[in-house]
């Protein structure tokens, strides 16, 4: 199991938290060290590990405790969510052009599984109901063309080839024209991938170029890719990388992205004994998403890359995750009900009114809570702005009231003298103050009515 070692490493982090009541700076420091070690051992690159651990610590310490959820369970959930973010958050599917064939250009070093991916993608496209054609643009290895032809037959899709004499940009362009004339939805282009060379055995025709990321790349190969790209303006340029190369996979994606501009990566051989670091690092390091993963040699062994499923596989704790999610949801609902009750409480005085005016910025969220009450669910942004203006206006009047007057609005209702005083102190007219007092009583009455409705509904629900 690819993530086996990582999963075990993380387990020791959760185990160290058993018996604690709440996550603190002291009691998470050892588990954090375990997490850090586990990720490094899984071949995740050091800067990524550092950022990850500091972000998890911050969230763990800032997290509200959730009733019924143990601290170690909460940490599992935080690590899960952070892993999902690390891997790009959402699934990143293929993009198709609206008209004309969608061109999917595959790049990658030799032996990573690029030709196999061509066939797997063709199989995937067929399942989506899209017609597809494979294009043999790797003209340097006759065997590659033969292999693609065989795979095409196996999948049942046409393979476009012009042998080994033609130039890849021209082949690809011609293939696109042919696809267009035959109304084919997508073409998958297999390009040349030279072997990555070590400094010890540089072939005579190799022009090495060391990139900022320490990757030796074959300039001729890159230039040709650029030309093919220019010739057909592909919708997708996907770099195929071998998961076994660990940290180097992420550096390769970065290099190809800088050199030719890619739209994503395909990680192959995840069924092998890679330690998983590549899957975790590629997005964070390169800024480009992993779109697919290969898990075997068969045609159907290519899957979309789902960050959340991958994170679950890393943690191996699906039940804990769904439990924490449910508890969080229950807590959110309870909080919403509490707030609603406060808003509607019969003792709604000028202090509450003032609190609201000071919380103007939160008006949007207030309106969402109010939206849960039947009949009050259509608060528009214009109404919110209007309410904000109005609240600023009444704030000056409320500030001019005594503490007693704020708590007992009746005093103002009963005494004209008090109203005149408030008007003078706030620079408003007596009439404006009277309107404000009347408004408060109106709101009170309305809220009590709504409260009655809600309680009535609760009673009816309780009877059922
Ligand atoms: P290319 O040189 O990049 O075109 O690589 P190939 O497509 O010829 O694949 C090289 C080898 O890797 C072949 O033996 C494939 O069967 C194998 N291979 C490709 N993808 C996977 C994978 O996801 N899992 C495993 N286990 N083997 C794979």
TrEMBL record:
It catalyses: GTP + H2O = GDP + phosphate + H(+). Residues 289-302 form the SRP54-type proteins GTP-binding domain. One of its GO terms (biological process) is SRP-dependent cotranslational protein targeting to membrane. Its EC number is 3.6.5.4. It comes from the Eukaryota. Keywords: GTP-binding, Hydrolase, Nucleotide-binding, Ribonucleoprotein, RNA-binding, Signal recognition particle. GO terms for molecular function: 7S RNA binding; GTP binding; GTPase activity. GO terms for cellular component: signal recognition particle, endoplasmic reticulum targeting. Belongs to the GTP-binding SRP family. SRP54 subfamily. This is signal-recognition-particle GTPase. It comes from Panicum virgatum. The lineage of its organism: Eukaryota, Viridiplantae, Streptophyta, Embryophyta, Tracheophyta.
